[in-house]
Amino acid sequence: MKEITISPVTRVEGHAGIKIFLNEQGEVDSAHFQVVELRGFEKFLVGAAIEEAPRITPRICGICPSAHHLAAAKATDQIFGVEPPATGKKLRELLNIGQFIHSHALHFFMLAAPDFILGYDAPAEERNVIGLARHSPEIAKKAIAVRKFGQRLTEAVGGKPIHPANALSGGMSAPLTEGKRAELVTMADEALTIAREGWDLARGLLDGVDTGVGAVETGFLGMTRHGLHTTYEGPVAVLGPDGGRIGSFSGEEYTNFIEEYSEDWSYLKFARLKGGDYYRVGPLARLNIVEKMGTEHADAALAEYRERFGTVTQATLAYHLARYIEFLTSCERAVELLSDPGITGSDVRIPVEKVVNRRGIGIIEAPRGTLIHDYTVSESGIIERCNLIVATCQNNYAIDRGVEDMARRVVENGTLTEGAANRIEMIIRAYDPCISCATHAIGRMPLRIELVRR
């Protein structure tokens, strides 16, 4: 048995592994994306009061805390039978937009861009954010500036820059002050200028790149409201592999469409559509589903994107451009919300009194895709059951199959070069997986690739 290890795979959030099995001729027989970490939050939450869920779940991840915070808060709204007031909803949407700006800027500029700007065959010691800063210092500076705005927005609206705490059952715990609004709208204008200028870079990122690599034929799932792109509220549309609309859901009826399952090579759960078709979530899926982004410059970018990829595309590497268009619309939407005088209104929460419904499902779009929090509680509001379906679990099948497709292309005579290994990593990075959201590790478990001859 021949084994080649790459440790760790770089520029992904969390730890995982890849195993590539070779036949006697040194050709790829099969390959799998493998996660061997322990996931525990669904058990940690059992026995806690439901109102604690929005405070506990942001600790799942330091990259995606706002999405978990808001999904849990939406679930508690249902359990207590309340609908947050308009200003409270606007603040929640603004909080989620802050996470989109921070997360998408981080991934596009710092994790993905080095492969395309510096070259995927560049030495590993150069093909990273430090190398990017040396090669293109202005790009690095702008990336840091927009990430800073995303974090400031999270801190101002959510109460903390990393693990927000202001969303709770019935709305938000505190309004946005006029002073904070004025500060943030100036930063939002600056971030939008950077995002608009950056589209010139983004639109050409995949020029000369074979966008057929790692492609997987799947259906798609994502939130939309009246055909517009949305991240906080709206039904989740479901497309089949042919791009046809299968249906939509907004609550517990998600179980009519989605089923979870496991495979013996990974601790990470998988999800598929009932009936056997697989699906993907995240920026690519959302852009396949929506008719418009709903903001001027992002709509213009979407038109260019669709000229190249069509209305519905299976191209995995198109995730990068889709992610940038979402980053652009998030900056535009931040300017809109922060320019709305009503955003500083004081009516941000409806008090709750008792449990009205023993089950609550909170659904939101996280940067990496649709996030579902499903809680069942006792009559006194103690969590009895918890199920979290995160984007990386839903993309798990497609990541796995994309890895095998790329492995078949780059492994030659039983040999995996550094450049070839990075090409496999690029397929994983296209999904921007958040393995911490999907699993939780005990100890240090670096991502590694093993090449096995059998």
Automatic annotation (TrEMBL):
InterPro entries, A to Z: Ni-dep_hyd_lsu, Ni-dep_hyd_lsu_Ni_BS, NiFe-Hase_large
Entry EC no(s): 1.12.99.-
Binding site for Ni(2+): C61, C64, C434
Keywords for this protein: Iron, Magnesium, Metal-binding, Nickel, Oxidoreductase
Cofactor(s) it depends on: Fe cation; Ni(2+)
Pfam family, any one: NiFeSe_Hases
Positions contributing to Fe cation binding: C64, C437
EC supergroup of this enzyme: oxidoreductase
Keyword set includes Magnesium: yes
tRNA processing keyword on record: no
GO molecular function terms noted in the UniProt entry: ferredoxin hydrogenase activity; nickel cation binding
Residues that, per the record, bind Mg(2+): E42, L388, H440
Source species, domain of life: Archaea
Family: Belongs to the [NiFe]/[NiFeSe] hydrogenase large subunit family.
Protein name from the UniProt record: F420-non-reducing hydrogenase subunit A
Organism: Methanoculleus bourgensis (strain ATCC 43281 / DSM 3045 / OCM 15 / MS2) (Methanogenium bourgense)
Gene for this chain: mvhA
